[in-house]
Write a structure and sequence with these properties.
12 helices; 38% helix; alpha+beta
Length: 317
């Protein structure tokens, strides 16, 4: 991949339904070139899908990360085991069998049970449990339910759910096709998509595998000094633009920890980022990990759309 490919992935991740014309304008290339690059990224497995669903925010779901060193003898079998829970969304495997297991809890009461499940299924004796901050301002596109939390959501109608179901496996599906599937007019479908997008109840994501494009997939654990402003430190690290494609995760229950995720094909940039981050006055320690395998799973969130039930009657107060 080159930087234009990386910019393309970021733009689509930020808005999966962005028009080819707008992509061409932002990237400074022709529409034909955009189409060719998109097809190439899909064929290589860099873009692994363009999916839609009811948002984590609308459902009041709680994304958590359970991570740690696994004693498992077979990573592939462990990945199968972790998929047995309908709370598991994604698992990333890094060096020395360090696993990052991301789950979507229906509510906080699921936390203890899910942590115990991950400990058993992945053989992680001493896991670190982090509850994700969804709106930390350090995510350029939606990953694992990230995005601004809404105080109020308009209840999804049966038509809304049908539209989301029609977009589930192709968030870029043309409005005319969606209208034919749901039995409504293109104008009405477009209005509902725009309304759900603005409301935050419709979540569209682009699963991404930079490894298939030749980039390294790296995760840096940054431990800050007590009292440091995590948003300020995160913005400062990202503003140095070591990497084009990057984001930082923060946790509500671990205020001193930043998880900096980035992709790069330049070891020199990785070394520079590691060195300069270690020298930051607000940083106590840095641990860099190389991820080499990732799996994404369907969750209870996805099955709500399959059933076209659950959130349709939900109201917010």
């Amino acid at each position: 991949m080159d930087d234009t490919d990386r910019e393309l992935v970021i733009l689509i991740g930020s808005n999966p339904r962005i028009h080819i014309r707008d992509l061409a304008k932002k990237l400074g290339i022709s529409k034909q070139a955009v189409h060719h690059r998109m097809q190439s990224l899909i064929e290589k497995g860099v873009i692994r899908g363009l999916i839609a669903g009811v948002s984590v925010s609308y459902l009041d779901a709680i994304p958590v990360a359970v991570s740690g060193f696994s004693r498992t003898a077979s990573v592939l079998k462990t990945l199968d085991n972790l998929g047995e829970s309908d709370l598991t969304r994604r698992v990333v495997v890094a060096g020395a069998n360090y696993l990052y297991v991301i789950g979507f809890l229906r509510n906080i009461d699921d936390l203890d049970g899910y942590v115990q499940f991950v400990k058993r299924a992945a053989d992680i004796p001493e896991p670190i449990v982090g509850i994700y901050c969804l709106d930390n301002g350090l995510m350029p596109y939606s990953v694992d339910g990230s995005g601004s939390r809404k105080r109020n959501h308009k209840a999804l109608s049966p038509l809304d759910l049908k539209i989301i179901a029609a977009l589930k496996h192709n968030a870029r599906r043309p409005v005319t096709e969606v209208a034919a599937v749901v039995g409504s007019s293109a104008k009405t479908v477009r209005r509902h998509i725009d309304s759900m997008t603005a409301d935050g109840s419709l979540e569209m994501t682009v699963p991404y595998d930079g490894l298939s494009g030749g980039d390294l997939f790296l995760i840096m654990h940054v431990t800050m000094r007590e009292g440091a402003d995590k948003r300020e430190v995160g913005r400062r690290l990202m503003s140095k633009r070591y990497f084009l494609d990057q984001y930082i995760r923060t946790h509500s229950n671990i205020p001193s920890l930043l998880i900096w995720v980035f992709w790069s094909d330049k070891i020199s940039d990785v070394r520079r980022a590691l060195k300069e981050t270690s020298e930051d006055e607000e940083v106590l320690s840095v641990m860099l990990n190389f991820a080499y395998l990732e799996r994404i799973y369907p969750t209870w969130q996805d099955r709500l759309i399959d059933l076209q039930s659950g959130p349709s009657e939900k109201s917010r107060k």
